[in-house]
Specification:
By secondary structure, the chain is α/β, with parallel strands linked by helices. The protein is built from six helices and seven strands, in the order αααααβαββββββ. Strands 2-3-4-6-5 form a five-stranded mixed barrel. It starts with a helix and ends with a strand. It comes from Amycolatopsis iheyensis.
Amino acid sequence: MRRETQNILLILLGGALVKIAVNGDYLRYVKPAQQPWIIAGGAVMVLLGAVAIVRDLLAARAAAAADHDHGHSHSARPAWLLLVPVLAVFLVAPPALGADSVIRTEARVPASAAAANAAAFPPLPAGNVVPLSVNEFVSRAGWDTSGTLNGRAISLTGFVVHTGGTTLLARLVISCCAADAFPVTVRIRGGEADHLAADAWIRVTGQVVPGTATKDNNYTPDFTTASIDTVPAPKDPYEY
């Protein structure tokens, strides 16, 4: 790869990192705590690329002056045309993981809950409807022997997955970045969500069907819905 190409790519890649860190798109790939490192890494790459380009331009100007004194000339190099395809990558950020990732990856109960081996979960807070992360809901449904979910109205937010004739509400859990993501899923009973598009974000209220989250079904509890509403996709699509 030519030096001009290397320098251009370095600046564009660094600029892309800074861009997604500032506008929040980085949350599609890593945890929020990684933002300062992304900004710092991108800024260093932009600085290194800019310094290298300035150095090369000064060297090229000195060489051109020497060639002029000796009667030589060279045509301009077209390396800058490489900006066109690279800018397309810079301007269009890949989407966050979604329904396809859930279908390809086996759902499971979070490792922290499995390690606890049915340790006592704290009581749910008071209220007519208790909002929970899908992660916590699945953990309680699979491992809480005291039945803190039973008979309680719960609100869950996630995206729609259609697989094997079943409609699921899902979230992806990450510990560091999207590369280590795994799904936690809830089976939506009643058919109200069957017509919704895959990857549509919804908020459901209802109750767990006790005893339905087992090892045989990858800890996917059944959920009897009282209401379903579509909602905008959150800026941060993952759970932790």
